[in-house]
């Protein structure tokens, strides 16, 4: 469920990955070649490995023998994801596939068949479609025509799951994430695969770095808050969720060079520890009294373990202070316990941990 991407597969990050307790690590095999020791260390730590491969920008087809060799080189990897934003055209920033939709399907078929020949147990997905441009909402360019041509050419027959790149800032805010997931569900249903799993191959928020991202760069605190809010509000809709990334300029949750954790590292670590083995129940509708007008500003998500409930609560724009629900333990996003007779609900998520059946949301109605 909870994953992280890294293009620096060195032994010195193993301790950070195990401390983080992620379920999976995604490695871009078109950019780096992890050692068997590194992969074995992940397997020993019960961390699944996702092999990401983005084909050359050129539309000339890669040979089947090349792909077979790739799969054979990494027997530790059984989950594979092919492609990265192929709908971005050659005249547009970030293009990584200049060929046609039909040409991408040919490349995908070659990759898929090679992987299944090496091992029928390989799970092979594809896409890395970027939500802001395949859903076409919120003033973003609509490139869904590329996906329709792909799916119409049989791409879904060579995909065990469909992956997406979900970005919040610069594309219309958090609503763009949900719009992207729902648009993709609609597209794959239109082409006959309504039950296909969706996965998030890439999502993130920078807190420093490249000036071309100046319009979306946030503070470390905002990066941490965004990580929790974006993950919590969409995790129930996808099979796995990859945060970009462990180490990369201002996007990483570790600082390059020093490997010092940023605030987002501690926030992700706490969320994983609390929710890794919890079942997502759903989003609740809350009617706080006397401020009923806050109903649509409250975001309240419920998870369950065999012996407790975990509620994740935040507001979008307002702040409201309410009496502390009896019997609940409240934590901030880093795991620090909140002490007092009242709770301040705001844009920073709060964890409310209670016994089964306690329903702390009901307490707000009084």
Task: Summarize the structure in short.
The chain is α/β, with parallel strands linked by helices and 366 residues long.
Structural summary, described in words:
The protein has 366 residues and is of the alpha/beta class. The protein has ten helices and 15 strands. The strands form three sheets. An eight-stranded parallel beta barrel has the order 1-2-3-4-5-6-7-8. Helix 4 crosses helix 6. The mean pLDDT is 92.
Q: H/E element string?
A: EHEHEHEHEHHEHEHEHEEEEEEEH
Approximately how much beta-strand content do the residues carry? 15-25%
Q: How large is the count of helical segments?
A: 10
The pLDDT mean sits at 92
Please give the oligomerization state of what you see: single chain
User: Uncertain regions: pLDDT < 50 for 5+ in a row?
Assistant: none
Topology:
Blueprint: E1 2-5, H1 14-20, E2 24-28, H2 36-44, E3 48-53, H3 64-73, E4 79-82, H4 101-118, E5 123-130, H5 131-134, H6 144-152, E6 161-165, H7 175-190, E7 197-203, H8 220-234, E8 241-243, H9 263-275, E9 279-284, E10 298-304, E11 308-315, E12 320-323, E13 329-331, E14 342-345, E15 350-355, H10 360-363
Parallel strand pairs: 1-2, 1-8, 2-3, 3-4, 4-5, 5-6, 6-7, 7-8
Antiparallel strand pairs: 9-10, 10-11, 11-15, 12-14, 13-15
Please name the defining characteristics of this protein.
366 residues, 29% helix, 8-stranded parallel beta barrel, 5-stranded antiparallel beta sheet, alpha/beta
């Amino acid at each position: 469920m909870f994953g992280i991407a890294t293009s620096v597969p060195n032994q010195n990050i193993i301790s950070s990955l195990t401390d983080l307790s992620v379920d999976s690590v995604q490695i871009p095999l078109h950019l780096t070649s992890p050692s068997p020791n590194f992969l074995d260390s992940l397997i020993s730590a019960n961390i699944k490995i996702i092999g990401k491969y983005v084909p050359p920008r050129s539309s000339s087809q890669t040979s089947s023998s090349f792909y077979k060799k790739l799969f054979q080189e990494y027997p530790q990897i059984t989950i594979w994801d092919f492609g990265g934003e192929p709908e971005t055209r050659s005249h547009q920033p970030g293009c990584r596939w200049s060929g046609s939709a039909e040409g991408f399907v040919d490349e995908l078929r070659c990759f898929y068949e090679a992987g299944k020949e090496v091992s029928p147990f390989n799970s092979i997905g594809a896409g890395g479609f970027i939500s802001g441009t395949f859903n076409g909402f919120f003033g973003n360019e609509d490139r869904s025509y590329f996906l329709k041509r792909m799916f119409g050419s049989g791409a879904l027959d060579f995909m065990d799951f469909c992956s997406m790149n979900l970005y919040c800032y610069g594309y219309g805010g958090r609503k763009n994430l949900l719009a992207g997931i729902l648009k993709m569900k609609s597209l794959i249903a239109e082409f006959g695969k309504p039950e296909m799993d969706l996965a998030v191959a890439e999502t993130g928020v920078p807190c420093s770095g490249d000036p071309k991202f100046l319009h979306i760069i946030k503070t470390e605190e905002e990066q941490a808050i965004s990580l929790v809010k974006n993950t919590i509000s969409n995790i129930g809709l996808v099979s796995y969720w990859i945060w970009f990334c462990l180490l990369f300029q201002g996007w990483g949750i570790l600082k390059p060079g020093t490997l010092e954790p940023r605030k987002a590292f501690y926030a992700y670590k706490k969320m994983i520890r609390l929710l890794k083995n919890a079942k997502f129940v759903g989003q609740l509708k809350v009617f706080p009294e006397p401020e009923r007008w806050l109903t649509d500003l409250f975001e309240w998500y419920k998870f369950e373990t065999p012996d407790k409930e975990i509620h994740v609560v935040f507001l979008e724009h307002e702040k409201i202070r309410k009496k502390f629900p009896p019997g609940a333990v409240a934590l901030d996003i880093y795991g620090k316990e909140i002490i007092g007779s009242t709770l301040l609900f705001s844009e920073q998520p709060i964890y409310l941990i209670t016994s089964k059946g306690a329903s702390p949301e009901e307490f707000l109605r009084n």
